[in-house]
Amino acid sequence: MTRSHHLPTVLVLLLALTLSACGFQLRGQANLPPEMARTQIQGLSEYSDLGRDLRRLLEGSGVQVVPSAEQATAILDIITNQAGRRVLSVQAGGKVQEYELIQRLVFSVRTTDGRLLLEPQELELAREYLYDRFDPLASGSQEGEIRAEMRRDITQLLMLRLQALGSDG
Q1: Under DSSP, is residue 135 helix (H, G, I), strand (E, B) or coil?
Q2: What is the H or E stretch that residue 169 is in?
Q3: Which of 40, 64, 106, 147 is the Cys-Cys partner for 79 at CB 3.0 to 4.6 Å?
Q4: Which domains does the chain have, with CATH numbers?
Q5: pTM of the model
Q6: Cβ(117)–Cβ(109) under 8 Å?
């Protein structure tokens, strides 16, 4: 009876050991370079949606996000953060039928003494959606949801680039 009682615990421990042996990490936890232990984010408002998402992911990976370069060991410089929309197709009569949303982010990482850890990197995402001219509120809501998804995706891509930097050393 005691043996079967411990079986689930043993199985969970074996699963955890197997996953850690193959390099598995929970999403949001990145192995970042030690130089990024205390990082300042420049070029992005900490109150913006992207700023909050990025801060949460960095802190989830053990990075202390600091407000000033004097407190930092590294600076994550957001060089460009652009969101745009363009018309993809129109119906007869010139009414918009389909839009493309674009999110572009250019960033680099350097130490506070100026040593470049990561050359400027460009990330760009594009998503398309159909515009319903008979229900513009729903189309606006759909656009907002797609933009939020793109923002989450681009921060995940940024973290993957930083994680690759951490595994280089």
Answers
A1: coil
A2: none
A3: 106
A4: 2-168 (3.30.160.150)
A5: 0.77
A6: yes
